[in-house]
Amino acid sequence: MASAILFVAVAVIASVVGYRLTCGRKADAQPGPPLPPINGVSLPPPPPVTVAAPPRRPNAWAIYDEPTARKAARQGMWAAFFVAIATAAVSLLAGSGISILRGVGPTAWVDALVFGALGLGIGRMSRLAAIGALALYIVERIAMAPTAGLSPVMMVAMISAFAQGIRGTFAWHKYHQESPDPMQMVQPYS
């Protein structure tokens, strides 16, 4: 039952994303300006003029300025916070004697602190923190594979979020340097 719900959820999300990427707004027909009368005789109105729809953003994941770069980087930040909270919870339970995942002990709270710090670094647009979070996550998933197993859906989601964090931080620094007025630039977390 759970796999059927997951399948339906993924299908709905994929269809919505596909629709948004492939279907743009249609052109709007608007009447042209009225013609002035010639020798007292008014002419019929001209046919409607078709005006092209305003250009759309290429897709939801495009980065084209500082705010969109910050939005992409926040995905990596929230992924790091999620890993930190989940690791802290499992570590706390392991310390209480309830083992949820094999291989995760009560000392995993150190790992939770590291991911929390990396999340704060990504929120401050640190490229090093974004790369470090992705690398640490991949290394830990490989190290935990023999004992805890791998969840491919969760791994793909988390790696995608961390990759977005890397893309966002690098793009933010690129657009931050290109800004014409440094006093008008928005700082991270704003």
Q: Tell me, what's the shape?
A: elongated
SS field, number of helical segments: 5
Q: State Rg.
A: 26 Å
Q: Cα distance, first to last residue?
A: 42 Å
Mean pLDDT: 76
Structural class: mainly alpha
Strand order within the widest sheet? 1-2
Helicity, as a percent range? 55-70%
Number of strands: 2
Short summary:
The chain is mainly alpha-helical and 190 residues long. The chain has helices at 2-22, 66-95, 109-123, 127-148, 152-178; strands at 28-30, 49-51.
Q: Which key phrases capture this entry?
A:
mainly alpha; two-stranded antiparallel sheet; 5 helices; 190 residues
Helices and strands in order, then pairings?
Layout: H1 2-22, E1 28-30, E2 49-51, H2 66-95, H3 109-123, H4 127-148, H5 152-178
Helix pairs in contact: 2-3, 2-5, 3-4, 4-5
Descriptive report:
It is a single chain. This protein is mostly helical and 190 residues long. It has a domain at 72-178. Helix content is 61%, strand content 3%. The chain is built from five helices and two strands; from the N terminus they run αββαααα. The two termini are 42 Å apart.
